[in-house]
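Comment thread on ticket #2218

A.B. wrote:
> Attaching the input chain for the structure job we discussed in standup.
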Amino acid sequence: MELTGEEENMLRGERGESLAVAYRILLAIGEATEAERLIPVKWAHISGVNYNTIGDSGVDFLEEFSKSARVVIRTTINPMGFDQNKTVNLSENFTKKQMSIARSYHMLGTTTSFTCVPYEIFDIPEKGSAVSFAESNAAVFSNSILGLLTNRESALSALASSITGKSPYSNLLMDKFRHAKVTVKPDYELVTELDYGLLGYFAGNTVSDNCIGINAGEEKLDTIKAKALSAAIGTSGSCGMFTKEQGTKQEIISCGKQEVITIKDELNTAEDGDLIALGSPQLGLNELHLLAALVEGKRLKKRCIIFCARAIHSQAERLGLIDGIEHAGGEFMCDSCTCLTPLITRADFDSVITNSVKAAYYLNHSNRVGVCLKDLKTIIKECADYN
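C.D. wrote:
> Ran it. Output below, let me know if you need it in another format.
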């Protein structure tokens, strides 16, 4: 990969070791992806914020790195393990290490957003802008719905982009990789967000290209369905984008009811649940409006934890949505999300009810709890009574 003279100087450490480390990361990625050069990016979104994800080695690296490094572009960060404004029954070691991570990102100069849906909170750059997003659902959604350009970045590569303001010019940053060679076509009606999540899981698991064609029938997906589709594609495979574009040379793969049943059987490991968990990706205003309408005049029969970004919670509170949901028994957790949270473990819950395919995957595989997978309207219909 060809570097400019200034980039070569920074790689050699003339502007400090932290910046040199960032350039070494980008150089290694660029060579692996056959990038010709680095290009400027306008926004970085970093994963690797939850202590359950990065562990002690990540804590130590961030503590040392943040002593001298500073971000040079807008940089937002993923959720951590719990709501820092609430008392939680977690180990002293987890809370200590988690807050160390938060302090390190603050020292780096990031916006401590603790969200996996930055596209629902922050101003979106103009269409065609290059960004560096490490959160998989955000990368897929931003490429597919918003017209931004980002690869499926790692926590380290997005961090390196935040420090340098650059990213290797490869894969989905280039137009030639943003066209689907394979289109997945469901031969059944898609109705709920869960239907789109299951389709996304099938597509991501079946097609390994950078971009997948999705022939889902609707001309324009609403945000709730687009989030479910994006998150599931990002969960089951390495694809970073879907498109409705269709061409005569595309291979068509059919997704039938039996394929969906097989996926649901894999993820749906319990008949019921002790807890309702909503928010993977975190819920936005669209979902909170829907949830508030569904629970109006009702009382939830099970404990229900709702994960959303603090910024979204504040907006929803001003709109009067929070009071109504909490009156029905909903419990909000900000700064965190369903995936990999230590708040949901086998020690406290045998099984969890959720409408998220992404949450179902991680609750089964990482949290080791059973999952009852249903769409949101069905969950509220079955788990809430009128007052």
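A.B. wrote:
> Thanks. Noting for the ticket: The two ends are 65 Å apart (CA to CA).
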